[in-house]
């Protein structure tokens, strides 16, 4: 059958080459796919071959049929364009519009949301244009506190409001933490806040607009083991079962203690060296930095009217683009490509 099909394919290609107009192409088509056409006969023969070989034969004929159809469409279009001079050929097959797909960042947002929803987090969104109060003061970063310098911020040109301060383009999704506490009122809280953030930076690992996802869990008895368990769960779901995380002490104003979350490198799998004994160039000694996390600072709980004697919580906030770039198989070395709107780049994902 395979031989027959390949001979047929060659024969058809030859006769198509000889065809001089659309009519001749149509005649060839009928001689192949018409009621007593060669291909139609071959298809009927499938019934006579042994049962176990039929699926394979079916697959093969389908493939050849598909290739033939493509060949005919192409050939017919070529001729029809030439024949246009003699009038419009209304039988030219239409141009099939190209299928698009969601942007990779949107895909990553869906994937991350899904992973956290599976363990009971609720997805929320909070304003992109935010008060200084929620972006900083409520998060234990009073005015003039040097930590605020790390969050270079876009300010909206409007007079400050007495209680909430100036308006800013939110520099991080942490500003949703206190909003969530005030909205929910009473723990338990398990939120995943995903949104756009803004900071005036532009280089291979920064764009002035980027996405973060922020987790916040508050309840009675929440401790660091819950944070670590959640980080491990996420890393395994998003990056793969072989990946591990570690918490490295760090400092943030809104968490105490604070950590950077690291994940084992997907290239050297946490060893720091490759099979040939050379140092892994992707990571630092086997670990890659994912983002910030920590136990919610009591002052932040107070901003959200939550009793810090009764409740504790953990939080984490990471960049979506950066997290996505670290997924193995995504060889992205310049974050700006994501927003360059070059369709040739975006189509690959
Ligand atoms: N908001 C911090 C930033 O943008 C990241 C962060 C650190 C979020 C620690 C947190 C956290 O929730 O606990 O750099």
Could you explain how this protein is built, in words?
This protein has 349 residues and is α+β, with helices and mostly antiparallel strands. It folds into two domains: 2-83, no CATH class; 104-346, BirA Bifunctional Protein, domain 2 (2-Layer Sandwich), CATH 3.30.930.10. The protein is 36% helix and 19% strand. The protein is built from eleven helices and nine strands. It has helices at residues 2-18, 22-33, 38-45, 54-83, 104-117, 132-135, 175-184, 224-239, 298-303, 320-325, 343-346; strands at residues 122-124, 129-131, 167-169, 189-198, 209-219, 245-252, 255-264, 287-296, 312-319. Strands 1-4-5-9-8-7-6 form a seven-stranded mixed β-sheet, sandwiched between helices. Strands 2-3 form a two-stranded antiparallel ribbon. Helix 1 packs parallel to helix 4 (54-83) and helix 2 (22-33) runs antiparallel to helix 4. The two termini are 37 Å apart. The mean pLDDT is 89. The protein binds 3,4-dihydroxyphenylalanine. 3,4-dihydroxyphenylalanine (DAH) binds at residues 172, 174, 214, 252, 255, 292-294, 315-317. It is an enzyme of class 6 (ligase).
């Amino acid at each position: 059958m395979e031989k027959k099909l390949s001979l047929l394919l060659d024969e058809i290609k030859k006769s198509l080459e000889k065809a001089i107009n659309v009519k001749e192409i149509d005649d060839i088509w009928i001689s192949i796919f018409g009621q007593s056409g060669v291909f139609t006969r071959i298809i009927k023969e499938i019934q006579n071959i042994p049962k176990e070989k039929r699926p394979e034969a079916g697959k093969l004929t389908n493939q050849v049929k598909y290739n033939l159809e493509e060949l005919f469409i192409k050939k017919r279009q070529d001729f029809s364009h030439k024949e246009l001079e003699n009038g419009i050929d209304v039988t030219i097959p239409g141009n099939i519009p190209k299928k698009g797909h969601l942007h990779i960042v949107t895909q990553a947002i869906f994937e991350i949301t899904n992973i956290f929803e599976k363990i009971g987090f609720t997805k929320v969104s909070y304003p992109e244009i935010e008060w200084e109060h929620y972006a900083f003061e409520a998060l234990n970063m009073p005015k003039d506190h040097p930590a605020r310098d790390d969050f270079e911020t876009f300010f909206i040109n409007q007079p400050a409001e007495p209680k909430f301060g100036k308006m800013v383009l939110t520099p991080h999704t942490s500003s949703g933490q206190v909003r969530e506490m005030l909205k929910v009122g009473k723990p338990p809280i398990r939120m995943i806040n995903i949104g756009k953030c803004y900071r005036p930076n532009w280089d291979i690992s920064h764009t002035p607009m980027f996405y973060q996802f922020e987790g916040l869990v508050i309840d009675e008895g929440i401790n660091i083991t819950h944070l670590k368990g959640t980080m491990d769960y996420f890393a395994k779901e998003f990056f793969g079962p072989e990946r591990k995380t570690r918490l490295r002490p760090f400092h943030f104003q809104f968490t105490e203690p604070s950590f950077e979350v690291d994940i084992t490198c997907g290239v050297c799998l946490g060893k720091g060296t490759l099979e040939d004994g050379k140092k892994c160039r992707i990571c630092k000694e086997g670990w890659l930095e994912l983002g910030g996390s920590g136990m919610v600072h009591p002052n932040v709980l107070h901003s959200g009217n939550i009793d810090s004697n009764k409740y504790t919580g953990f939080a984490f906030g990471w960049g979506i683009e950066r997290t996505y770039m670290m997924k193995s198989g995504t060889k992205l070395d310049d974050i700006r490509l994501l927003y360059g709107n070059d369709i040739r780049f975006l189509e690959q994902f």
